[in-house]
Amino acid sequence: MKVEVVEKIDRGFEIKFRVGKESEFKRNTLFQKVEADDSESFRIAGGEALKRVEKSIELGFLNISEIAISEKKYLREVIEGILLAHYSFQKYKSKVKKSPILKLFVKGSKESVKLAKTVVSATNYTRDIVNSTPNEMTPQRVAEIGEELGKKKKLEVSRLYQKDLKEEKMELFLAVGKASVNSPTLLKLAHRKKGKKKVLIIGKGLTYDTGGLSLKPAEFMKTMKADKSGASAVLGIMKGVAELDLDVEVVGFLGLAENMVGGDAYRPDDVIKAKNGKTVEVLNTDAEGRLVLADTLTYAQESEKDFDYILDIATLTGAAVVGVGEYTTLIMGNSEKVKSKMLKAGEDSGELVATLPFNRYLKEMISSKTADISNVGSSRYGGALTAGLFLNEFISEENSKKWLHLDIAGPAYVEKEWAYNSFGASGAGVRMVLQFLMNLEK
Ligand SMILES: [Zn+2]
């Protein structure tokens, strides 16, 4: 949908937002109800208004291809809600169903419009990648998409192929991808800005996760194309960072692999040496994301110096979804200050986020009698935290307070519509992390 800034709202159909009062259609106008006077309520109302107008066009009650909006205070949010709700994924359909609205006219700040458009475009770009199927989105293909993005947006690009991963002694990463004909790869993208804050972002990119030999039941395997949501979010974030030309140095890392079964698959009981020298006893091959992340985190810390924050983003645990439901990202780390920055970014961007605290007793749960640590907790409880603590083992002492782990297993892919999100990938993490980075500029 095109968004144009105009001087006066005097054309065609208009949407007006009002807090508290019921929605109603009047001549050439939709008065859209807004639950409360806050930014997220306006985002939701924007999405609702668009759906309502689209439905009326579909049913033949309205015949328009343009809408106008005169909201001032929450202009950015309203546009975001509308553009996010406008998203549909029809890549694999032979006949594409065209959405009726073509143009959106707004009055107000060009900055707000640009911000809304860029943030949504980054989010929808991520949604497209996540929604794309695993027979198309192999580790190679996702890396190529990243390389194309890097070229287009003038980002620094480098890539490690399977033989390079071997040279870098990233045996955990390699083990996960071993049984797939689509070999694992690591992509690095950088937006360089000297002298400002510097942030590393590491994304889990399991282009498909069967669970490996600890095979998932058929019902649980469905939607596992979304196990690349973390890496796809990193791509969206890098796109947004480049387009907004943020005054923050940002380096993204995508750990891309496919977890399959085969004669050379890694097994439960294997002990594998990580890039940072620690030995890991594999007790469940379905806890593979943390293995890919472990080596990618080590590589990131070794290849970049003098950074202020190191974030990882991953669809990591079912336990996170059990704990807080399908809509909320869980964050974990060793610094209250960094956590509160991400909570603020969640609030500002409209993404739901909650913190989960580590404690001194949990660490025992990932101990191993055979190796330094094991890749799953010894109890059925606290699975999101023990996954977080596993990653913590791969964060060096000096970076401990700079690190934040984002588990997006809940919101990344939801099999129903919710708020302004359509079925499928939501682009979880993109809006929040972009906001986190924008807040660092101030
Ligand atoms: Zn898994």
What's the rounded overall pLDDT mean? 96
Largest sheet: 8 strands, mixed
Kindly report the CATH topology of the largest domain.
Aminopeptidase
CATH H level, superfamily name of the largest domain: Zn peptidases
Shape: elongated
Strand content: 15-25%
CATH C-level of the largest domain: Alpha Beta
Assign a percent range to the helix content: 25-40%
Ligand identities = zinc ion
Termini separation comes to 31 Å
In words, what does this structure look like?
The strands form four sheets. Strands 7-8-10-9-13-17-14-15 form an eight-stranded mixed beta sheet, sandwiched between helices. A six-stranded mixed beta sheet has the order 1-6-5-2-4-3, covered by helices on one side. By secondary structure, it is α/β, with parallel strands linked by helices. It has 13 helices and 19 strands. Strand 11 (271-273) and strand 12 (279-281) form a beta hairpin. The chain folds into two domains: 2-106, 3-Layer(aba) Sandwich (Leucine Aminopeptidase, subunit E, domain 1), CATH 3.40.220.10; 131-441, Aminopeptidase (3-Layer(aba) Sandwich). The protein binds zinc ion.
